[in-house]
Design goal:
By secondary structure, the chain is an alpha+beta fold. It is built from four helices and twelve strands.
C-alpha cells in the first residue's frame, strides 16, 4: 500500500512538472507573440499622437511614409519660396537698372535735342550770313561794273573830243587862227592824253585784268571767301588790340598825371545859389565879391566829397567859413570846402577823388545849409564852372 501511494505521488509530481513546463512554454509563446505584434505596430506606426478634447480623445498615428512625404513637401515649399524670393530680387534689380538706363537715355535724348536745336539755329544764322555776303558781293560787283562802264564812256568822249578838235584845226584859213587853234588843240590833246592815262592806270592797276567778274559762285567759294575775310579780320583785331593796349597805357599814365586836378562839384544833389564873382560884378548873383560858388542842398545835410586826390592841409573852424576843409593837390591846385556841419578828416590825411571829407551845414557866416566851394591854382582863384 505504501509503495502504491509513493508511486501515485511520483506520477502526480511529474504531471505537475509537465503542466508547469507547458505553462512556461505558453507564457513564452504569448510574450513572443506580443513582442512580435508590438514590433509590427512599431514598424507600422512611427509616431503616435494623443489629442484630447471635450468629447474624448483621439489618437493619430504617423507612419514613415507620412514623415517622408511631409519632409519632401516642406523641402519643396521652402525651396520654392527661396527660389521665388531670389527671382523676385533679381527681377527688382533688373527693373531698377532698366529704369536708371531709361532715365539716362532720356537725359541724353534731351541733350541731343538741345544740341540739335542749337545746330539748327547756328545753321540758320550761317545761311543768313552767307546770303547777306552774297547780296553784298553782288552789289559790289554791280558798282564795279558801273564804274568800268563809266570809265569806258569817259575814254570814248575824250577820244571823240580830241579827234574833233584836230579836224577843226586843219580847216582854219589864217596863220594866226591856225596858230591859236594849234595851241588849243595841243592843250586839249595833252589833257585828253592825261585823262586817258589816268583811266588806263586806274583800270589796269590790278595786273591789267578785270577784277569785277563774279567773285563768289559756289557755296565752297563762299565759305572760303568768308574764312579768308575772318582770318584778315582776326589779324586786324590782333593789331588793333596791341594798339589799344598802347593807347590804354598812355591814357592811364595821362590820367595818373592829372588825377589830382579838381573836376566836378563836391555834392551831388545841389542848386547853385551864388556864382563865382571875384571882382564884385553887380550883374552876377547878388553882386558881392565871391571867390567860389555856393551849392545849396535845400536844407538837407549831405556828404561832401573831395573833387581830386590830395592831402588835407587845413581842417578847422573859421569865423567866416565856419567848419571848413582845405586840400592841397600837389600840382598848384588847392580846394576849400566851407560852412560844414562837421569835418570828417584831419590835417595830414591823404584822400582820393570821391572820398567823403565833411557834411554840409550852415556854420560861420551862412544863411542856410550849403557848401561853399573854392578852387585855387598857384594862389589864383578859379571859376569852378571851368572844371565841371
Amino acid at each position: 500500500m505504501a509503495e502504491n501511494e509513493n508511486f501515485s505521488k511520483d506520477n502526480n509530481t511529474e504531471n505537475i512538472l509537465t503542466e508547469n513546463t507547458e505553462l512556461t512554454e505558453n507564457t513564452e509563446n504569448t510574450a513572443s507573440a506580443e513582442n512580435t505584434q508590438a514590433e509590427a505596430k512599431v514598424d507600422k506606426h512611427l509616431i503616435t499622437l494623443h489629442l484630447s478634447h471635450k468629447n474624448g480623445s483621439k489618437t493619430l498615428h504617423l507612419k514613415k511614409g507620412h514623415l517622408i512625404a511631409a519632409s519632401v513637401a516642406a523641402f519643396l515649399v521652402l525651396g520654392g519660396g527661396a527660389y521665388a524670393g531670389v527671382s523676385y530680387l533679381q527681377t527688382q534689380n533688373r527693373l531698377t537698372n532698366s529704369q536708371q538706363q531709361l532715365a539716362e537715355m532720356e537725359k541724353e535724348n534731351r541733350k541731343l535735342t538741345q544740341r540739335t536745336e542749337i545746330l539748327e539755329n547756328e545753321n540758320e544764322e550761317y545761311t543768313q550770313h552767307i546770303n547777306e555776303i552774297q547780296m553784298k558781293t553782288e552789289e559790289l560787283e554791280n558798282k564795279m561794273t558801273e564804274l568800268e562802264n563809266t570809265k569806258q564812256s569817259l575814254a570814248e568822249e575824250i577820244n571823240n573830243m580830241s579827234g574833233s578838235t584836230t579836224s577843226t584845226t586843219t580847216t582854219e584859213s589864217t596863220e594866226d587862227a591856225s596858230a591859236a587853234s594849234n595851241d588849243t588843240a595841243s592843250a586839249e590833246a595833252d589833257l585828253s592824253t592825261a585823262c586817258l592815262s589816268i583811266l588806263e592806270n586806274g583800270s589796269t592797276s590790278q595786273s591789267g585784268e578785270k577784277t569785277f567778274t563774279t567773285i563768289v559762285t559756289t557755296s565752297y567759294n563762299k565759305a572760303t571767301s568768308l574764312s579768308a575775310q575772318l582770318d584778315k579780320m582776326n589779324v586786324m583785331l590782333d593789331l588793333t588790340g596791341a594798339s589799344f593796349v598802347d593807347v590804354a597805357t598812355n591814357v592811364t599814365e595821362t590820367l595818373a598825371q592829372y588825377s589830382n586836378v579838381p573836376m566836378g562839384y563836391p555834392v551831388e544833389d545841389y542848386v547853385m545859389s551864388t556864382e563865382f564873382n571875384p571882382d564884385g560884378d553887380p550883374t552876377i548873383s547878388d553882386g558881392r565879391v565871391h571867390k567860389g560858388v555856393d551849392l545849396s542842398t535845400r536844407s538837407q545835410i549831405l556828404p561832401i566829397s573831395a573833387t581830386a586826390a590830395g592831402t588835407v592841409v587845413e581842417a578847422t573852424y573859421h569865423d567866416d567859413y565856419g567848419y571848413y576843409v582845405k586840400i592841397d593837390h600837389g600840382n598848384g591846385f588847392t580846394t576849400l570846402y566851407a560852412h560844414n556841419s562837421e569835418n570828417l578828416v584831419e590835417v595830414g590825411d591823404t584822400v582820393k577823388k570821391g572820398d567823403v571829407i565833411a557834411m554840409t551845414g550852415s556854420t560861420g557866416m551862412s544863411t542856410g545849409i550849403h557848401c561853399h566851394y573854392e578852387i585855387q591854382l598857384n594862389g589864383i582863384y578859379q571859376n569852378p564852372k571851368d572844371y565841371e
